[in-house]
Design goal:
The protein is of the alpha/beta class. The chain has helices spanning about 5-15, 30-35, 35-50, 70, 80-85, 100-110, 115-120, 150-165, 180-195, 205-210, 215-230; strands at about 25-30, 55-60, 120-125, 130-135, 140, 175-180, 200-205. The protein has a 4-stranded parallel sheet, with helices on both faces.
Length: about 230
Amino acid sequence: MESFGQKVIRFHQQLVYTGKKLPEGIRIMNPFRESLKAPAILEAFAAKFLHTGDQRHILLGINPGRFGGGITGIPFTDPKRLKEVCGIPYDGPMAHEPSSVFIYDMIAAYGGPIDFYNRFYINSPCPLGFVQEKDNGKEVNYNYYDSAALTAAARPFMISSLRNLIALGIFTDTAICLGTGKNVKFLQGLNDEFGFFQKIIALEHPRYIMQYKSREKHYYIDKYLTALQSM
């Protein structure tokens, strides 16, 4: 029997952007095509945490960021959490992503990564990231909803990606959306049209919590745990 992790590996191996032409100055970020590290990291992660054939409930973010999934290939998992919490070797720069800090604090409160990933899987309606090149030559994270042109261009790719994610073995009774603003508005709109899930629970995005509500982090961790325990 094929494990959930083997399906996840194949999903990412075949992952290419199939949407419309991106707006000028925006490019796709695909660690599985740009890095030799990400495929090996995913294989190790899948073998350790996704090795059963059981179905999972899904938590959906926005799209990968440059310092987390954009490096490791594992959603909301920066190199530091990958090495220190997940126990997977990493010999590159120790990038830091605030969202990853919250997610792994929440996972620790749940019972640890083995217990968490046995029941849940994290990805995004747009499983590839976007970056924008600024006038100074530096690149910054860009969300699929940051411009109407990008949202329209990426929409067909996101619809296809959600179907493919569900086909991995995702429960469709309830999904969690990370983001209570533009992300859930867009995702709920797709869900109303295509019926991916019976219900979507929206929770505050980890980046928002760490940037604006860090003193109340434990309140939001409890809120996440309550939602997970209801599934």
